[in-house]
């Protein structure tokens, strides 16, 4: 296991170094944005992008059983966000406390939309493709660092390749740094750092995608607003934050040089046969609580629920 992680890490660093060498310098970018042209993005050896030719409509268990199932996987490594609450017991569907607000929200929002929701933090529940192929979508919820072993990685690859749906929320951008396939599934992007959690104005970058269709053109959201290195490439950006609107001043994002003018927070793509929808939003506990009159929570719920439904294929996916 240790040797596998060392080799995987070396490969990831090699891929990253190759891409970084091709990126324009800060001076060449003129201090305006951090972006990578499609011809310089990392090649993960799969079909990926916004063209549905990269999608596989293969016959699988989740297409045959007539049940809309979703698995929520919230395992964490070093760090754990408050909205996840205490770590869960092993097994499938262990008891949840009131402090597990994000898992409770996914259960509640799923039930409201006729979905069967399972949840776990036990990697053994992901150790064979047959286990994952029951689900129309798998939600990776604020994971951190190493949260998959070799068997689970293989299962996830096989699931995605069969046309499975993958949703990543918030800190999952800080997970599985040393597995290139997973990084590609995230759009080639990683969490680098963030400033304090604060209000900022989020803008829609798509007119038709269902995950933003119910959102105003511009709306206020409180979050950590991650800096991303690498920057997502080959994806359709669905929403971005306006850095000039951040409370306390937004230029440079916590002193980081990469995002003074272009800062995506949500994007989508087809990847190796499956669908992938990723958002860096979701830090605040309040966003996961259906509190009457909380406009930010209402908008966040619409964003995540419709992103999930589109990834499952129940609504149109990844529209401009």
TrEMBL record:
It comes from the Bacteria. InterPro entries: Class_I_gatase-like, ThuA-like. Residues 100-292 form the ThuA-like domain. Keywords: Signal. Coiled coil: none annotated. Residues 1-21 form the signal peptide. This is ThuA domain-containing protein.
């Amino acid at each position: 296991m240790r040797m596998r992680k060392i080799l995987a890490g070396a490969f990831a660093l090699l891929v990253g170094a190759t891409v970084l060498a091709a990126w324009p310098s800060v001076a060449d970018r003129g201090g305006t944005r951090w972006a990578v042209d499609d011809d310089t993005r990392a090649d993960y050896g799969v079909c990926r992008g916004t063209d549905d030719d990269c999608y596989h409509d293969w016959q699988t268990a989740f297409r045959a059983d007539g049940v809309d199932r979703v698995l929520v996987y919230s395992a964490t490594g070093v760090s754990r966000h408050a909205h996840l609450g205490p770590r869960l017991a092993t097994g499938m569907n262990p008891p949840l406390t009131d402090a597990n607000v994000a898992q409770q929200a996914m259960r509640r929002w799923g039930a409201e939309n006729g979905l069967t929701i399972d949840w776990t933090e036990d990697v053994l529940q992901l150790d064979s493709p047959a286990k994952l192929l029951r689900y129309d979508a798998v939600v990776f919820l604020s994971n951190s660092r190493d949260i998959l072993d070799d068997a689970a990685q293989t299962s996830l690859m096989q699931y995605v390749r069969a046309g499975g749906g993958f949703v990543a929320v918030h800190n999952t951008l800080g997970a599985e740094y040393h597995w290139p396939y997973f990084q590609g599934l995230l759009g080639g992007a990683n969490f680098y750092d963030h400033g304090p959690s604060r209000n900022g104005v989020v803008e829609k970058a798509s007119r038709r995608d269902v995950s933003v269709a119910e959102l105003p053109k511009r709306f206020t959201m409180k979050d950590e607003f991650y800096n991303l290195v690498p920057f997502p490439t080959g994806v359709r950006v669905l929403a971005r934050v306006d850095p000039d609107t951040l409370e306390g001043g937004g230029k440079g994002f916590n002193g980081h040089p990469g995002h003074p003018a272009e800062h995506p927070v949500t994007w989508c793509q087809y990847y190796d046969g499956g669908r992938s929808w990723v958002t860096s939003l979701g830090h605040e506990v309040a966003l996961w609580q259906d509190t009457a009159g909380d406009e930010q929570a209402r908008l966040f719920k619409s964003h995540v629920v419709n992103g999930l439904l589109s990834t499952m294929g129940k609504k149109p996916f990844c529209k401009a």
